[in-house]
């Protein structure tokens, strides 16, 4: 087995995945990239700029494709995968009655089923490099308290949080660490998407209008490194996520009041 540690990153063609891949590469890790966006992975490869990077086009909704991707990456690394970063995700906003059935199903499939499939596929590889190997999942501040105007997205991120906590128990005897990141609004291309097909105002505009901060993506990369090497089950990233976690625990009545008054329906 190779001595160089290896991490496989989904959503590695942009945003958080790209930043985490570069951060770990700078610390001499072998990087595996999984994404449906081949061009984006090519950009990440150029940013890394060394020979220890492997790209595999991957749709996280396809269970068999997961096995193919991780088996191929294990061959490329000389037989080891130390971390699988379940990061691929898509946004979906707007009130539930504005969301189409197609949008709901796609968000559930990518954000939740993709994480479950990734965990299943990762397990035999992480067991080989345990103790100390890690499954790292991208949850969200929307997985701390349900976000009005993002019920489906919040449901998926609560699900990712639940998967993380469940597998932390299931895999403890195997020596596999399971962790999650809970970022708030991060400066990535996802902020420039419209929340749903019926909206013509992008997410970045809504965040700015609400007076919320946008956290640099480099902070998430550093948090991912800390999560992999630390003992904390859930790592919040950004002021909004940290304050939400505190308030949801200690001031739940205030959080409920604020969320009920903050939602601005489409067109208002």
UniProtKB/TrEMBL annotation:
<dbReference type="Pfam" id="PF00106">
    <property type="entry name" value="adh_short"/>
</dbReference>
<dbReference type="InterPro" id="IPR036291">
    <property type="entry name" value="NAD(P)-bd_dom_sf"/>
</dbReference>
<comment type="similarity">
    <text>Belongs to the short-chain dehydrogenases/reductases (SDR) family.</text>
</comment>
<dbReference type="InterPro" id="IPR002347">
    <property type="entry name" value="SDR_fam"/>
</dbReference>
<keyword id="KW-0560">Oxidoreductase</keyword>
<protein>
    <submittedName>
        <fullName>SDR family oxidoreductase</fullName>
    </submittedName>
</protein>
């Amino acid at each position: 087995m190779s001595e160089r540690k290896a991490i496989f990153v989904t959503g590695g063609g942009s945003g958080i995945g790209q930043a985490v891949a570069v951060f770990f590469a700078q610390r001499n890790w072998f990087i595996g990239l999984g994404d449906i966006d081949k061009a984006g992975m090519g950009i990440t490869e150029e940013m890394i700029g060394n020979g220890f990077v492997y790209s595999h086009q991957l749709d996280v909704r396809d269970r068999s494709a997961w096995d193919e991707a991780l088996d191929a990456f294990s061959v490329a690394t000389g037989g080891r995968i130390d971390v699988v970063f379940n990061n691929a995700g898509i946004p979906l906003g707007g009130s539930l009655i504005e969301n189409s059935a197609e949008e709901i199903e796609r968000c559930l499939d990518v954000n939740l089923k993709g994480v479950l499939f990734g965990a299943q596929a990762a397990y035999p590889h992480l067991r080989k490099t345990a103790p100390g190997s890690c499954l790292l999942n991208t949850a969200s501040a929307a997985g701390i308290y349900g976000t009005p105007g993002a019920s489906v997205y919040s449901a998926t991120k609560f699900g990712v949080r639940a998967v993380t906590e469940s597998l932390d128990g299931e895999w403890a005897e195997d020596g596999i660490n399971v962790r999650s990141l809970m970022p708030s609004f991060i400066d990535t291309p996802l902020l420039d998407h419209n929340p749903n097909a019926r909206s013509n105002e992008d997410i970045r505009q809504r965040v700015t209008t609400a007076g919320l901060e946008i956290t640099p993506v480099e902070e998430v990369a550093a948090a991912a490194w800390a999560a992999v090497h630390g003992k904390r089950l859930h790592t919040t990233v950004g002021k909004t996520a940290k304050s939400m976690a505190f308030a949801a625990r200690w001031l739940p009545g205030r959080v409920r009041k604020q969320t009920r008054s903050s939602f601005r329906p489409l067109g208002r």
